[in-house]
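Action item from last week, closing it out:
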Amino acid sequence: MQEASARNFKIEEIMNKTTKVYIIQFICFAVIFLLTRFLIVQFGLLSGLWIPIASGIVTILLAPQFKIFKIDGKETVFVAWVFSKKGKPVNWL
């Protein structure tokens, strides 16, 4: 019985919000980086070392930024993106 309850742990118990934000931000960065790298290679715009450099620069500009703020004693996650003027709260974290 104790084994079954040990397996049914929730992600909230083992990870705080900061760790979740870092993981999600890394996943967003990696997806955008790989997509831009693929597009640059596919269209043959650059070659050699310039492909990852250009992909990295484009990704830095396009990737969303997640920040944690303490509001009324509660940690709130906000996302800022180049396509939005203000940071928006993220409720699913």
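Closing note: The first helix runs from residue 2 to 7.
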